[in-house]
Design brief:
Elements (H helix, E strand, L loop, with lengths): L1 E6 L7 H14 L3 E5 L3 H5 L3 E3 L2 H4 L21 H13 L4 E6 L1 H12 L4 E5 L15 H21 L3 E6 L6 H9 L4 E3 L7 H13 L6 E5 L5 H12 L3 E5 L3 H4 L4 H19 L5 E6 L2 E6 L4
Parallel strand pairs: 1-2, 1-4, 4-5, 5-10, 6-8, 6-9, 7-8
Antiparallel strand pairs: 2-3, 10-11
The structure holds 6-O-phosphono-beta-D-fructofuranose.
């Protein structure tokens, strides 16, 4: 049996752990893996290589994706989709395993409509795959962000500054919420919880009165300009205020233990589905357990 494998969209910590475990198990089952480089773009361009055991040893602890992972604008065109299907056929694949976020899932659904057999693994730091409690990469991203915020807090505390940290998440608040809780933030600004300058200033005053020396604000990306917010707070309170974006360390970080284990379990479940010829499934975590849903039902 020949199985295609690709990682698409923004990479997520844990993708390499999945690739490693999946490839090892697949080789044991005598499956041949055809890996596509650069996600759906690699499928369109038939940019393939055969994954050997040697290639996938000692990569589980690495962030990123050894298969490379990009967003393909060509795949969104009719012509691109047609080329992708052709490449699936030319390679005589029995199924295609795809890892990625919501864009990748949408793409997978388009391929299923055209007869491609898919197994989808939710892999994105954003945790915005609503049918699954957790996506691969989320836990690592939160840990990386918390680690960075803790360090920022230490230097801010040394001079009693107020500080703002912006975290990733695209349209999903989960990273920001978890970071705010884990770092005892004074204020969380998210899609669900926007605040006016007046409210922010009032809350900071209250926390200073309570004895907080370096009030902190965690902001989800795509909501406000944190640098201008910092200036406004500083002007209002006459206290030095700094802002920083945590940025790509959240995405490029090493996978956490939770994500390494999740990746292995996703890999085992994928092999089970393939062995039983159960296709067009989207893997997920429900009530803490690995399971799958029909892609068309999502
Ligand atoms: O989807 C993961 C993510 O890191 C989001 O949190 C962020 O908004 C986006 O990707 C950034 O994508 P890019 O690197 O393509 O600009």
């Amino acid at each position: 049996m020949k199985i295609g494998l690709l990682t698409s969209g923004g990479d997520a910590p844990g993708m390499n752990a999945f690739i490693s475990k999946f490839s090892t198990l697949a080789i044991e089952e005598n499956f041949e893996i055809v890996a596509f480089k650069f996600g759906y773009q690699g499928l369109i361009d038939n940019n393939t290589f055969v994954l050997s055991k040697e290639l996938v040893y000692n990569i589980s602890h690495l962030g990123g994706s050894v298969l490379k992972s990009t967003r393909s604008s060509e795949f969104l065109t009719k012509q691109g989709l047609k080329k992708a299907i052709q490449s699936y056929k030319i390679n005589e694949l029995s199924a295609l395993v795809v890892l990625g976020g919501d864009g990748t899932l949408k793409g997978a659904k388009e391929l299923v409509k055209e007869g491609v057999k898919i197994i989808y693994i939710p892999s994105t730091i954003d945790n915005d795959i609503s049918y699954s409690e957790q996506s691969l990469g989320f836990d690592s991203a939160v840990n990386a962000a918390v680690d960075a915020i803790d360090k920022i807090k230490q230097t801010m505390l040394s001079s009693n500054r107020i500080f703002i940290c912006e975290v990733m998440g695209r349209h999903c608040d989960d990273i920001a919420k978890n970071c705010a809780i884990a770092t005892d933030a004074t204020i969380l600004i998210s899609s669900e919880k926007d605040c006016s300058l007046k409210q922010i200033v009032a809350k900071i005053k209250l926390s200073l009165k309570d004895g907080e020396e370096s009030p902190s604000i965690i902001v989800k990306e795509n909501i406000t300009d944190i640098f201008s917010l910092a200036k406004q707070i500083q002007n209002n309170l006459d206290i030095e205020t700094r802002a920083c974006k945590i940025g790509y360390v959240q995405r490029g970080t090493q996978p956490s233990v939770v994500d390494r284990i999740l990746a292995r379990n996703f890999a085992k479940e994928t092999i089970t589905l393939l062995k039983n010829k159960k296709y067009n499934k989207a893997l997920c975590v429900i009530k803490g357990k690995i399971t799958s849903k029909n892609i068309n039902d999502i």
